[in-house]
Amino acid sequence: MAIAIHEDFETGQLEVKVSDKLSKEDYEHFEPAVERLIESAGKIKILLVMHDFHGWDMGAVWEDIKFATKHCRDIEKIAMVGETQWEKWMSAICKPFTMSTIKYFDAGQEQEARQWLA
């Protein structure tokens, strides 16, 4: 599996670590975690840490589009921590498709990303 998820119900924060290539099956674990946290906390915050990340397969692209449409108002902030220029560009491309505030952090700035979310 290309995704690891940690739900913090106290802070309403979801930590998502991705590597390799996301598949439709990864979204079958991700979306229920998001929905549990939304149900508990209302609007949530997401820390997305990308390490050796290679994007999405076609099934995951469709799941991502459906997810973004369904939850565009449920996520307050997204901190994206990545290693490559295309991941930084991805954070800018995502902004028009969500009501969330999105900020990109370079690898090694994970602590700063956590502080920004808080």
Automatic annotation (TrEMBL):
Pfam families: SpoIIAA-like
SUPFAM superfamilies in the record: SpoIIaa-like
Recorded superkingdom: Bacteria
Protein name: STAS/SEC14 domain-containing protein
